[in-house]
Amino acid sequence: xxxxxxxxxxxxxxxxxxxxxxxxxxxxxxxxxxxxxxxxxxxxxxxxxxxxxxxxxxxxxxxxxxxxxxxxxxxxxxxxxxxxxxxxxxxxxxxxxxxxxxxxxxxxxxxxxxxxxxxxxxxxxxxxxxxxxxxxxxxxxxxxxxxxxxxxxxxxxxxxxxxxxxxxxxxxxxxxxxxxxxxxxxxxxxxxxxxxxxxxxxxxxxxxxxxxxxxxxxxx
Length: 220
Description:
alpha+beta; 6 helices; elongated
């Protein structure tokens, strides 16, 4: 059941992003820079640590106290050297709302582990909480053979239009038939990515794309 929920959230957030999985042409874009990230591998689980505080531009920081929600969506694709398509996906969405009466920020973060909420009193605390991953599990490698991998990261601030929200609600109201099993969820996930790749509705206030260094997992 938990794995089904993981696939379901992954599919939902791909729809939220409007199909932002990068195409092969984008994947080879020389303007996409490399950033070194922390990579941790233990008990078959791959985790990472890095920051993306630069997603919070000065104009976005100034809007944080407007009372309107700010949404930050981070997507991490795991790539295997020699393969053109990502082999796994992790997505986290964070919604930030400033309460003018309580003079505090309320954050709701959602990923495959579920929903978590926090109350913070400073913009710096918000940026540190939302704009940083610390030993964050992003993929379960299982029995995958040794290989050379890297992460491709996409962060967007306020990427979702009203039209996209409406599409999400329609999709949730009518989930695909026969999607109760883990294998069925996996197959649906693959077809879902294929349908929405390179399609976008609306533009983000800020968009950051980068790749990590290549790293080895497994082997002698």
